[in-house]
Amino acid sequence: MKKIALHWQILIALVLAILFGIFFQNQVKYISWMGEVFLRALKMIIIPLILSSIISGVSNIGNAENLGRLGAKTILYYIMTSTIAIITGLILVNIIKPGVGADLNLAQAVHLDVEPDSLGTTLIKIIPDNIFQSFSSNTQMLSVIFFALLFGFFITRADKKYSSVLSDFFNAVFEVMMKVTLFIIKFTPFGIFGLVAEKVAQQSDLFALMQSMGLYMGTVILALVIHGIITLPLITSLIGKVNPVKQFNAVKTPLITAFSTSSSGATLPLTMEAVENNSGVSNKITSFTLPLGATINMDGTALYECVAVIFIAQAYGMELSVVQQIIVVITALLASIGAAGVPMAGLVMITIILTAVGLPLEGVGLILAVDRILDMFRTATNVWSDSCGAVIIAKSEGEKLKV
Ligand code: ASP
């Protein structure tokens, strides 16, 4: 198994799962535990992953030179492009409605014991009254993110002898958490096998499942393409006064790498090399914006989270109110900031949004099967946005570029 690339393993698992689900419907109970184990492992790492990635990310910004001006511009670009990406996804998923009418035997599985909070209450509850309770609850991810942002920021304000210990510590924890995540991801083929076989066995109408997943994938990919070939090039040429076609040619290699590794983090050295040598951005700007971007600027992930959550809601037959859709936009932005630049990090983060709008976490099981394929497209979009951001910021700092 080791020598076969993960995406092939996943593809094989997918095919086997479908066959198993069709031909061994009654035996599925013997293998469905694999899916459950995999989902539990994903849930297990949510809290430590969010904590360490955000704290280390934010405290690393604080250590950078020119934090104020450069930081403000960078963050503004990240938030602006990610928000536009989310809205692109939101519009398309509301028009195409890939989940509506999808007979996934799920509509009856929703048990909404509590009314979802209003936006006001949700915002107030971002501030935890007991942070340890938030850590141990699956329903208070926003509080955990808020606390991590605050903690990371004030690490940079603490006395040098304390701040260096803490930022080293959280960088180290993050490093380990990435390894744990990658380790868990190795089991994806088994997880997918268990979950998909179970889903297929439950399906009376397999064709409807394929049809609705195809529409869902098409929606995500179409929105990503619009963002990647219309929105980002427009921003790059209008705000950055940079030729987007030249910039695209400059970063082709990192884009292909991002597509095939599904990891912004793993692609980072290539992105930095390309933006520096081919686009002509100074090392000062690439070393600040690109590592930060690989961690927190994820347009593709943000867009995907929004489409996926609304798809799940549609499949469950839940009509999301305007307030709930606004919550999806905000939490998708936060979740994309909190997602690590590793394969399928976005999938883990979806649970935050599901929780925020009161959808069952098991909804993740619905989109898991096609996640790895969509991950390739969204990671390429993430890296493309990082690289556009670097040239726009360099241009605004008066640098002379090659693109
Ligand atoms: N794989 C993505 C990245 O590395 C994150 C995600 O899962 O959305 O950029």
What does this structure look like?
This protein has 403 residues and is an all-alpha fold. The protein has a single domain, classed as Proton glutamate symport protein. The chain contains 17 helices and no strands. It has helices spanning 6-23, 32-63, 67-96, 119-124, 131-136, 141-157, 160-185, 188-202, 206-238, 244-250, 252-261, 264-277, 283-296, 299-315, 322-338, 345-356, 364-396. 50% of the residues are buried. The model is unreliable at 106-116 (pLDDT under 50).
Which descriptors apply to this entry?
403 residues, mainly alpha, Proton glutamate symport protein, binds aspartic acid
Present the secondary structure layout:
Layout: H1 6-23, H2 32-63, H3 67-96, H4 119-124, H5 131-136, H6 141-157, H7 160-185, H8 188-202, H9 206-238, H10 244-250, H11 252-261, H12 264-277, H13 283-296, H14 299-315, H15 322-338, H16 345-356, H17 364-396
Bound molecules: aspartic acid.
Aspartic acid binds next to α16 and α17.
What are the secondary-structure elements, in order, as H or E?
HHHHHHHHHHHHHHHHH
Please give the radius of gyration in angstroms.
Answer: 21 Å
Q: Could you please say which CATH topology applies here? A: Proton glutamate symport protein
Q: Give the overall silhouette.
A: globular
Q: Which architecture would the CATH scheme give at its second level?
A: Orthogonal Bundle
CATH class: Mainly Alpha
The whole-number mean of residue pLDDT values reads 83
Number of domains: 1
What binds here, in terms of ligands, is: aspartic acid
What's the total count of β strands? Answer: 0
Q: Class by helix and strand content?
A: mainly alpha
Name given to the CATH homologous superfamily: Sodium:dicarboxylate symporter
Q: CA-to-CA gap between the ends?
A: 43 Å
